[in-house]
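Dear Dr. H.,

I hope your travels went smoothly. While you were away I took the liberty of generating a structure for the chain from your last submission, since the lab meeting agenda had it listed for discussion. I wanted you to have the full record in hand beforehand rather than looking at slides cold. The sequence, exactly as received, is reproduced here:
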Amino acid sequence: MPAVAVCRRAKLEDVEPLFQMIDGYAQRGIMLPRSREVLSRQIDDFVVTEVDGLVVGCGSLCRLGDELVEIRSLGIAEGYKGRGLGSLLVAQLVEEAKSLGIPKVMALTYEVSFFLKNGFTVVEKDIFPEKVWTDCIHCPKQHACDEIAVLKILN
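The corresponding predicted structure, in token form, is as follows:
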């Protein structure tokens, strides 16, 4: 019988598996690192995907204003990719944005085709001054950012 994936809000006991997953991506330079302390403080912003009680995926929403949220720290553990778990997480995060009444969801990504498949479109980064002044100003790649901006407008 195939394992069932469950998407749920993250809890404090998820901090360590979140840290390990995000750190794996951060070491490869494809995700910003998050300390255990930051994850503990921001745990309410995260959702996780579990398979057989094991946290195998994560993602978070960061509010960048009244009209915009960003999907951040979206990742799936090795061995669980290609099963639709990332799309499950994105759908959950989009639903959360809708429930907050926020009309636009953006992300900066290297996985453009994944986001296109999930209803996002490629846009210019400079249409998000909220993102630039909130985060990019502190990023080591600030002047040579190679991530692609994607946007989904909710109705």
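Two observations you may find useful: The two ends are 37 Å apart (CA to CA). The chain has a mean pLDDT of 89.

With kind regards,
E. W.
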